Amino acid sequence: ESSLRLPAPRDVRVYSYNFRSSLRWSPVKVDGGPLLYTVHFKTGAFNQWDEMNCTRISRTECDFPQLLNEPRWTVTLRVRAELGPAVSDWAESEPFVAERNTTIGPPRVSSVPEARSSDSLLISVAPPFASRRGDSLQYRVSYWENSTSTTKKEISRSNTLFKITDLKESTLYCFEVQVEFVTLSDFNIRGLPSAPQCYSTTVS
């Protein structure tokens, strides 16, 4: 029996970006040919292991099926290595809740040129993922004059088109924007900031 035991996979982790999630692990190294891996999952609601869409696969990553992309579910996954009749012990991930554990990417940010004036800029943002019913997204905007003394100002908006006023004329201002995702349980995730972009006000 012991000769049929393989080492279990290590570094078993869920990686999640903008609510797209996958399980990854380090490859098991043994002599005797390429290993295959099988992944199971269970949710907090049903405490039983089910097959995922990754049975006897050769790669060391398994994407979540659509069924599991529920942001509020608690999901635990496990993976084992297989080589002919030999199998390893199961290696489990930490429980994962997308709504708390995903990484939110930066929003897309642009300026609306025809709306520029001497003292304001109109900024348009697009969320990094398609929001679902009940989601609340806030956009935290930092902006500063592109000069030697950079004092940042910050505003927070829930709409995707907003005007920033009280600016100096004919001046270059730079912006970065983060998404703040507020869940129904009032848990906040702050996303990654967008790369700074700079736009100039006009001359009056």
UniProtKB/TrEMBL annotation:
Residue ranges of every copy of the Fibronectin type-III domain listed in the record: 8-101, 106-204
One Gene Ontology CC term in the entry: plasma membrane
InterPro entries attached to this UniProt entry: FN3_dom, FN3_sf, Ig-like_fold, Interferon/interleukin_rcp_dom, Type-II_Cytokine-TF_Rcpt
Lineage: superkingdom: Eukaryota
Gene3D superfamilies, per database record: Immunoglobulins (2.60.40.10)
One example GO MF annotation: cytokine receptor activity
Protein name: INGR2 protein
